[in-house]
Write a structure and sequence with these properties.
CATH architecture of the largest domain: Orthogonal Bundle
Structural class: mainly alpha
Oligomer: single chain
Largest sheet: none
Helix content: 40-55%
Radius of gyration: 25 Å
Length: 141
Amino acid sequence: MKMNRALTLVALSLLAVTSWVQAQNGEPRATVPTVVKVDYDTAAFMAPLPLTETQAKGRTRFAQRCANCHGGNNQQLGPLLGRETVDRLGDAGVRDKVQKGSMLMPGFQYALGATEIDQIVAFLKTYTPPRRQQAAPAPSS
């Protein structure tokens, strides 16, 4: 019984001190991250293109599996992928990277079959990604 009263007294004291500190500063102690909205043109990525069936399937696979990190948004982790990537690494190099991944990228050898990876490579040969824009500076308070 005495222990419950003591715990209640400590909790109320902490609440009172916390309220007093917040009143002194005018705002709570916890910080709230600033969310910066960056618009990018999804319509440009999803616009119809004259693609073969294989390339179109690769485009769908890219949108499902790759675009989250490699699609051109400033908040995305991976490098932009497209025709230049295939020219630089070659078909086999891109296939190997997709299958095995890297330190920052998961490998897809168990999630995508050889045909699906070939479809992604076929699409990448037709695609020139939009250049990333510099993120707008956070508004100062």
